[in-house]
Amino acid sequence: MSDRFFEDFEVGQIFTAGGIELSQEEIMEFARNYDPQPFHVDIDYAEKFQYGGIIASGFHTMAVTMRLFVDTGFLGTSSLGSPGIESIQFISPVRPGDVLSLSVLLENKRVSKSDPTRGIMVLDYTTTNQEDEVKLKMKGIVLMKCRPK
By the 8 A CB rule, do 18 and 102 touch? Predict the structure, then answer.
C-alpha cells in the first residue's frame, strides 16, 4: 500500500486500472443478491426487454468501479474514506463479457477548513468497456490524510 499523502497529489493527475470481465453468471448472482429485477436475473424476460439480454445492475457496475479505483493504488494507506458521491450516471448497460476499465481524474483538491490534518479531493470517474464505450460516469469526494508535520 502507498504511503502517499494529500500533498503528493496534483490536480489534473489521471489514475487508471482495468481488466475486470463480467460473466453472465456473475452478473446474475450479484443481481439475485442485491438487485433482483427481472432484466438482471431472468434470461427469458431480459431477452424480450428493451436491452435484448441480461445486463448488470448499476450497483454492480459501481462496485466494480470501486474495486478498480482501489486497484489504481490511489487510496493507499492515507485514505480516510468518502463523505459521498456528487453525481452518478449509468451511460450504457454493462453486458456479459464486458471487460471494464477505469480512468479517474483528480479534478480539485483543498485542505479541510474544519480539520487541517485532512484534505478533500474531487474525482471524476469514467468506467469503460473493452470497446471504449462509456458505461458509468461518477463524481465523488475522497478524504485523505495530510502529511504529518
Answer: yes
